[in-house]
Amino acid sequence: MNQHRNLxxxxxxxxxxxxxxxxxxxxxxxxxxxxxxxxRTIITVPEDISAGFKLALSDIRKAxxxxxxxxxxxLAKTDIKKGHCVHVHNLVSSx
Length: 95
Fold this sequence. Notes:
Helix content is about 5%, strand content about 35%.
């Protein structure tokens, strides 16, 4: 069953520059999370994402920088769709 979750309760965004959030709990495929406020966004979680892993807050194109903590942590190896897990399989780390 698909469930709606508040982004702030299930993932953390450390800077307004960030294009990834860190999952605070396991996120299950099919659920969706949304942020509140002026720039409200809804993210459908298309795959299971384990706690501690990153999820894309927006589409990230191949070779574009990935921001966490307000800093570039690497470049996308491939196009990464909004809601997908961001990890070593699709990120070249620059840290």
